[in-house]
Design brief:
alpha/beta, about 350 residues, 10 strands, about 15% strand, 7-stranded parallel β-sheet
Length: about 350
């Protein structure tokens, strides 16, 4: 791909989201005109933080009303853009109807955005926010990988509508993206595949992401008697935004990028908060025993099934991040910095 013209606007779907907010901030600071595609531009409480960033940045932001499930609703926002970021997708594990609440918005949304790109002659590159969930369902699957680590070559084949439907939605959505990308030759596709994204939200009172709930539970006493050693990948939200930025503006960027700073688990994450916040908050001091989680997990949260606990607690998670470090020159923040900065936002806003 040739270089993106920096005088042209850049479109971001789901611009008020957790990752998207930091990406929009970066684009504004770099002087771009951002076409922010959002559900309801009139909801000022959702956009005020972006307006404030725009006011003190060289770039400008313009809002466009768009709906993931409405074909063609991104056409106006995309007009004249060479670079499109598609970040909008539901992230929750607590849904009543996985087909309606997860699969359809993820897959149809991806289809709508990418088919619009095909009809918009200016578009040269599309960067889609996928997930490591499109690579694996359970940490235990790492044992079946060629070198004992997840890589970009691996696809999730184990999630379903009944088991880990969120992971299933991310897999189907990314597969749809590649299918559309391969059916045309006008633009190229790059996907960013983060694991668990943590770090400070730009708009704490409107953030509803799952990572926010985990952080809240660490501080409100939910895990006081012990945090699970639930194996996972971990990455700072600011690093994910930076990875998106580089994926858009590095001509040689190609394919999928596992975007993970650390291989860790929930207990290890919680321990990084003790030095600064341990005196004042009921943070976990020990790891929850697996047998206990196995007994009580299903009663605490329906996504904590016994199968899930067996396959993820006390199981080491590992990804190979050599591709993103080499091709996008990415470095990642330490876990402690991410956790402290994120928890401080909860403290400052009286959320814990």
């Amino acid at each position: 791909m040739s270089q993106i013209d920096r005088s042209k606007p850049v479109m971001v779907t789901g611009a008020t989201g957790y990752v998207a907010g930091w990406l929009v901030k970066k684009l504004l600071e770099e002087g771009f005109t951002v076409h922010a595609a959002v559900r309801d531009p009139g909801k000022k409480e959702k956009t005020v933080h972006l307006d404030e960033i725009a006011d003190r940045s060289p770039g400008t932001i313009k809002y466009f009303k768009s709906d993931l499930l409405k074909p063609g609703s991104y056409a106006e926002a995309m007009a004249g853009c060479e670079l499109v970021y598609h970040t909008a997708s539901p992230f929750t594990t607590d849904v009543d109807d996985p087909q309606r609440d997860l699969i359809e918005p993820a897959v149809k949304g991806t289809e709508n955005v990418l088919l619009t790109a095909t009809k918009t002659p200016s578009v040269k590159r599309v960067v889609v926010t996928s997930s490591c969930a499109a690579i694996y369902t359970d940490a235990s699957e790492v044992q079946d990988t060629p070198n004992g680590a997840f890589t970009e070559a691996i696809w999730n084949t184990t999630a379903s509508l009944d088991y880990q439907p969120y992971s299933y939605s991310k897999t189907l959505a990314e597969k749809k993206a590649w299918e559309i990308a391969e059916s045309q030759s006008q633009w190229d596709l790059v996907t960013i595949n983060p694991a668990l994204v943590m770090g400070p939200p730009l708009n704490p009172h409107a953030t509803t992401s799952e990572s926010f709930n985990i952080l809240k539970q660490m501080g409100d006493g939910t895990f006081k008697s012990g945090a699970p050693k639930l194996g996972c990948g971990f990455v700072d939200v600011r690093d994910v935004a930076e990875a998106h930025y580089r994926a858009g503006f590095t001509p040689a960027a190609d394919g999928r990028y596992i975007t993970v700073g650390h291989n860790t688990d929930f207990f290890e994450m919680s321990q990084t908060l003790l030095p600064k916040f341990g005196e004042d908050y009921p943070l976990p001091k020990s790891a929850a025993p697996k047998w206990l989680l196995w007994l009580i997990g299903p009663f605490i949260n329906k996504s904590l099934s016994r199968k899930f606990i067996s396959n993820n607690v006390n199981v080491e998670w590992k990804a190979d991040t050599s591709k993103i470090r080499r091709e996008l020159d990415m470095e990642f923040r330490p876990i402690q910095e991410t956790m402290e900065d994120a928890f401080q936002v909860l403290v400052d806003n009286n959320i814990v």
